[in-house]
Design brief:
The chain is about 60% helix and about 0% strand. It is mostly helical and about 150 residues long. The protein has one domain. Helix 2 crosses helix 3, helix 2 packs across helix 4 and helix 5 crosses helix 7. The longest helix is centred in the middle third of the chain and has 33 residues. The protein is globular and about 40 Å long.
Length: about 150
């Protein structure tokens, strides 16, 4: 299920060890908890925000990608404010650190899923590789419903 399970840093005796979370939850469950936390600030879901940060800081890009894929598949509509936070966080980190590996997949999902496409329009250039950034901008300029009206790049 998860591409990077079996993390040597995982403490199996600590039920709150965030590095262990992927062994206990599916990408959809983690995506739902993360989006839920971003939307409500519910402290009971705060672990999901910490978990997302740990995945990005740990360079676990396959797991980040799987959660990003799950977000637009959640049953409830996701407000633009939350899409913008995910765009500026997990999605931007993925493109900045592993963009060459994931940009094809990102473009395909953005074309096939309007929610993901809208989320992609919220990514800023930061230090994303110039070739990857050009592809993101090309898609976003053609997207009919960007988060920012009009698209700024």
């Amino acid at each position: 299920m998860w591409g990077e399970m079996g993390n040597d840093m995982c403490d199996d005796d600590d039920p709150f060890d965030l590095l262990c979370a992927p062994q206990e939850f599916s990408p959809v469950e983690l995506a739902a908890a993360y989006v839920g936390y971003l939307g409500t600030g519910d402290e009971d879901l705060g672990w999901a925000n910490n978990w997302a940060l740990d995945l990005c800081l740990g360079g676990r890009w396959l797991d980040v990608w799987r959660v990003l894929q799950a977000i637009p598949e959640l049953p409830e509509p996701i407000p633009n404010k939350i899409l913008a936070v995910v765009a500026a966080g997990m999605l931007e980190d993925l493109l900045k650190n592993a963009g060459e590996e994931y940009v094809d997949r990102v473009e395909v999902l953005a074309r096939d899923n309007a929610t993901f496409g809208r989320m992609l329009t919220g990514v800023w250039p930061s230090s994303i590789d110039s070739e990857v950034w050009e592809r993101v901008v090309r898609f976003c300029r053609s997207f009919p419903d960007p988060l920012d009206q009009p698209y700024r790049y």
